[in-house]
Design brief:
Residues 67-71 have low confidence and may be disordered. The protein has helices at residues 4-63, 77-105. It is mainly alpha-helical. The protein has one domain.
């Protein structure tokens, strides 16, 4: 005949180990998803930066602007406003995508 207190002890210990394993798996999964999301956002930002630089170079070559001694490029205010508007639209699109991704994970 076994002691009910001993059985309760072993049952409690097994339950605690099972819960601990479940928590570890959930935390590992969450950290993995955060890591993936961070890597994707870094890649998106890198691509965005490259696109902005390419667009600036293209705009500079199309307008025939010259580079000043300080290294900055003179661009007409119309082209500058258009570029700003396009950048704002891209930022809004990225925010929408980011929010959709956050909502998908919640």
């Amino acid at each position: 005949m076994t002691n009910p207190l001993v059985n309760a002890f072993f049952l409690g210990r097994a339950l605690a180990e099972g819960i601990n394993e479940q928590v570890e798996a959930a935390v590992s999964s969450a950290l993995s998803e955060v890591g993936k999301f961070d890597a994707e956002q870094r890649e998106n930002f890198r691509n965005f930066t490259e696109q902005v630089q390419a667009r600036a170079q293209q705009d500079a070559s199309q307008t025939g602007s010259t580079t000043t001694a300080s290294g900055s490029t003179a661009v007409s205010s119309i082209d500058l406003q258009e570029t700003i508007d396009e950048l704002r639209a891209e930022v809004a699109q990225l925010r929408t995508t980011l929010q959709a991704h956050r909502n998908q994970n919640n």
